[in-house]
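User: Working on a comparison across species. This one is Adenylate kinase from Alicyclobacillus acidocaldarius subsp. acidocaldarius. Can you predict its structure so I can line it up against the others?
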Amino acid sequence: MQVILIGLPGAGKGTQAAKIQAEFGIPHVSTGDMFRQAIASGSDLGRQVKAYLDSGRLVPDETTVAVVRDRLQKPDAEKGFLLDGFPRTVPQARALDDLLQELGKPLDRVLYIHVDPSVLKERLTGRRICRSCGATYHVKFQPPKVEGVCDVCGGELYQRPDDTEEAVATRLEQFKQTEPLIAYYEERGLLKRIDGEQPIEKVHEDVVAALAPFK
Ligand code: AP5
Ligand code: ZN
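Assistant: Here's the predicted structure for Adenylate kinase from Alicyclobacillus acidocaldarius subsp. acidocaldarius:
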């Protein structure tokens, strides 16, 4: 199963992707996570992308496509994958088309998790992430059992540096580059809209129903 998740920053892509990965057994490929890991490890890629992530601007297409190309050729991607945060521009979507054709893996579904921008500030400023395993929480909507501590691994929870008000505003603005992809995939009959303003478990039910035919 090959699936793409599209949505504004904070729409709930990462939250739903973690659940789909667990339930459908396909890898969660998040360009944002890969860039954050590169930054944490101090690699060349990390040094190249850090200023983009910190400010909320998009990393150049060439760099992003190269990272995804490598990732989708790893053995665990043979059974399919869930792309979270990629593609985000029309050139990225075209590059993905070419790559999927090379790999002989057609797209099954594009899920557009739709939310009104007005809900995002609270979601993003309340988000907390585990430093060790990457699990996502929210101080109000998805609190850990013990404040500041990951339920899964006991790791320390932190706030992403791009969850400041200024970077969030830039990230929302950058979504203009992603909007054309909605029509791009709708025209091919691949797009399914999901109401992302419902509680997390209800969104998950809708996601599972949309993906069930491809399991
Ligand atoms: P990326 O990591 O992809 O960030 P994003 O798109 O801004 O998305 P987020 O991770 O912020 O949000 P999400 O939709 O996953 O929400 P979440 O589930 O955490 O990208 C970061 C940066 O990397 C970019 O700015 C760019 O610089 C670079 N980058 C990445 N991909 C790129 C690309 N393809 N090209 C170029 N540059 C790229 O949920 C948010 C919070 O809300 C959580 O606390 C969660 O608990 C809570 N929540 C979730 N669902 C609900 C719900 N239904 N109700 C209530 N609360 C909820
Ligand atoms: Zn953890």
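For your comparison, note: The pocket of BIS(adenosine)-5'-pentaphosphate (ligand 1) is lined by residues 7, 9-15, 31-32, 35, 52-53, 56-59, 64, 85-86, 88, 92, 123, 126-127, 136-138, 141-142, 162, 171, 196, 199-200, 203 (CB under 6 Å).

User: Helpful, thanks.
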